[in-house]
Amino acid sequence: MSTEATFSRGLEGVIAAESALTYIDGQKGILAYLGIPIEELAEHSTFEETAFLLLHKRLPTRPELQKFTEDLASHRPLPAPIVELLKALPQQAPPMALLRTTISALGHFDPTADDVSLGTLHQKAVQLISQLATLTAAIGRLRRAQEIIPPDPTLPHSANFLYMLTGKRPSAEAARVFDVLLILQADHEFPASTFASLVVASTLSDVYSAISAALGALKGPLHGGASEQVIRMILEIGDPAKAEPYIKERLARRERIMGFGHRVYKTYDPRARILKEYVQKLALQAGDTRLVEIEQIVEKVVIDALGAKGIFPNVDFYSGTVCYYLGIEPELLTPIFAISRITGWMAHILEYLEDNRLFRPTTRYIGPPLRHYIPIDQR
Ligand code: SDX
Questions:
Q1: pLDDT digits (tens, 9 = 90+) for 89-128
Q2: 159, part of any domain
Q3: CA of 264 to the centre of ligand 1 (A)
Q4: 256 Cβ inside 6 Å of ligand 1
Q5: CATH number, domain at 72?
Q6: Nearest atom within ligand 1 for CA of residue 193
Q7: Which pTM was predicted?
């Protein structure tokens, strides 16, 4: 039995498990997957290779990467009834809610849904990484009242996603930028969504239940839902000259500025630093630097006001602008976060179930002392 555990609101600073997957130094702004700095993975790796790294805890050989890539491509198609279900659901429902519903429904078409043996979970990881992308693209198409585009098995993961979403094969550069976004968001230790998936997985419930829980957590505006709010804010500001007064007014009202602050990072989120470079490149190529100018003013005003409290841009501050320049609407930003983070969720489930222990924290009781029941006529 543990001694009197310390109480920490929101489990801040509490170590809930041991993991070899992701290292974060929140003071120095370091993020590494299996010890490899995110900057090096963003520069040299691909999403497929990074997904293999996280799922298998090592970089693949060339034949392994080839097979993994083929496996991913072969698992992209959705069961026909799931496509019909998507078409039957309200097309303008929040995409994260549609993703949560359809991932849960996918389990009905998986005869081994309740099998949580490690070998089977590795197969399900490949299946879910691919099918979440296909689902997200389909949701995007239906929102625009467009026909769903089936996956193209000859395209790499990111290029295929953009193709299914837009109907056009993306440029090598656009596919590369999107691939880097997926690499950057693939894992992040124990955020609320990963922890939610592990609480469910630790009961030995099925993976569809665990991922549905993760999707529910990621949907929240304090977590993955922030990226959509950021780009909407930037578009609402619209004019660089309005950026400073807009932010100062919201700070004066002690409102939270989405895309800033982090439970772990008390300095610049290294992912935001990388995405900022891509945004600047994309803006110059688009010949429209207005959004970037607004973001840089917003960033300066917020850091001037809150930097001393350790509040800096997080990954969500620039991810929305990257997607904006790729022609992706704000509503799909959190699902795009999910199609990357499914990798981390599955990697942590695989790792945790190797030495599973049911999550069951406790509370510090502050209710009334033990006492007797009072019959209703005496109350
Ligand atoms: C993600 O955990 C992860 O790893 C998540 C993630 C991942 O990869 O999975 O990195 C992805 O979710 C990034 C975060 C996206 N969320 C947002 O951008 C929403 C805005 N951010 C804040 O709500 C907040 O910073 C959190 C929720 C992210 C973290 O909050 P904490 O650690 O619970 O900090 P807090 O709410 O206790 O805030 C501490 C102080 C407060 O001021 P005081 O009451 O002490 O005076 O900082 C202030 C807060 O008001 N503050 C902010 C702020 N964030 C914190 N003030 C203005 N704007 C903000 N964004």
A1: 999 999 999 999 999 999 999 999 999 999 999 999 999 9
A2: yes
A3: 9
A4: yes
A5: 1.10.580.10
A6: 9
A7: 0.96
